[in-house]
Amino acid sequence: MNRFPLIALVCAMFSTGADANTQLWLSDQPPDKSLLQKMQRSHGGYVYVEHDVYVKQLWLRKGDSLFKSSYAESVADNFEVLDTQKNISKPVVEHDANSHSIRFQMPDEGFYNAYYTERSVADNVLNVTTAKAEVLKHSCRLGHNYDRKLVNPNQWADAPMEIVRLRLPEEDFHTNIHSGALLKFKVFYKGRPVSGAQVKLETQKGWINTKTTDRDGIAAFQIIQDNFPVEAKPETQGAGAEANAADVKPSPEGEGWVRGNQNKEKSLFESPHPSLLPEGEGAHALKSTALGSEGADHKSSEPATEKSSEHAEHGSGKKGGGGHEMRQKDNFLVHAEYTADENGDLNGAPYRQAVYSVTMTGSYMPNVQVDQSRPQALMYASAGFLVLGGSAVLYRRRRIKPFKEVSFDEH
Amino acid sequence: MNIKTYIDRIDLRRFRFWFQLATFALLVYGGRLAIDLGNSLPTFSCGYNKKGQAGVCYLLPLQHQLAEPWSQLFSPAGLGVLGGFALFLLWFVVLNKAWCGFICPLGTIQDWITSLRKMLGIRYSTYSDEQFKKLSLIKYVLLLALIFMPLAIGGQFLSHDWATPYCQICPARMIIPVFNGDFSQWMVDFSSTGKMVLTALGMFITGLFLIGSFLKKRFFCFFCPMGAFHYIFSKLSLFKLKKEGSKCTVCGDCYRVCDLQIKPIADNVVKKDILMDDCILCLKCVAACPEQGALRVELLGKTVFESTKDGFVKRMGLEKKE
Question: How many C-beta atoms lie closer than 10 Å to residue B229's C-beta?
Answer without folding.
Answer: 22
